[in-house]
Design a protein that fits this description.
11% of the residues lie in helices and 22% in strands. It has 79 residues and is α+β, with helices and mostly antiparallel strands. The protein has a domain of 54 residues. The structure holds zinc ion (2 copies).
């Protein structure tokens, strides 16, 4: 399920879930795999999904899906 701004802000408000957290600033949300906390992450986007997929680069486990907003040009608004 995709995350929206409200979901990400709720995650910030609920505090950092990272084991052995070394973050200096908890106003910023960092996305890590719980499976491989110190591992790399892969961030990808496909046109079909319309979401940014964050996955663990070690085991490909899904970490987060983040909805991407489309530009809304005035010309596309129907009156
Ligand atoms: Zn933290
Ligand atoms: Zn992993």
């Amino acid at each position: 399920m995709a995350s929206y701004a409200e979901d990400l802000e709720r995650m910030i408000a609920s505090g950092c879930q990272a084991p052995g957290c070394t973050h200096k600033d908890h106003g910023t949300l960092f996305l890590h795999g719980k499976c491989h906390f110190k591992g790399k992450v892969e961030v990808s986007y496909t046109k079909d999904s319309g979401e940014i997929l964050v996955a663990c680069a070690e085991c490909q486990k899904e970490i987060a899906r983040i909805a991407v907003a489309r530009r809304t040009f005035p010309a596309t608004i129907k009156n």
